[in-house]
Recover the amino acids of this structure.
């Protein structure tokens, strides 16, 4: 398993939160834990503002270390689904302070 990116822990690169082999290559883990809390406010149909916090990670041990991020975004609720632009901040040191994620969802 891998974590990180728009669908799990925003603020981190796609599939960047997982164990590495001895040479530093990311190999994935046996256990995955992710969670999101998001609040959307429909301020002018079809636009909404979003506030969120994410946590998650992947590990070879059941005691998964959680990486956390928080941020906000703008959501356009289209007839076919939604388009979302998020700015997120990862809480681990040494990473870029803000990350932009764009997401298009089809369906409900």
């Amino acid at each position: 398993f891998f974590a990180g990116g728009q669908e799990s822990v925003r603020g981190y690169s796609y599939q960047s939160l997982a164990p590495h082999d001895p040479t530093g290559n990311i190999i994935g883990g046996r256990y995955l834990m992710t969670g999101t809390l998001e609040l959307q406010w429909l301020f002018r149909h079809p636009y909404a503002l979003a506030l969120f916090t994410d946590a998650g990670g992947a590990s070879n041990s059941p005691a998964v270390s959680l990486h956390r991020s928080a941020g906000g975004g703008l959501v356009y609720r289209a007839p076919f689904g939604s388009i979302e632009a998020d700015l997120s901040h990862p809480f681990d040191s040494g990473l870029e302070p803000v990350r932009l994620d764009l997401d298009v969802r089809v369906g409900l």
About this structure: The CA atoms of residues 30 and 60 lie 5 Å apart. The beta strands are 31-44, 47-59, 67-78, 81-90, 99-106. The chain has a mean pLDDT of 94. The chain has no helices and five strands.
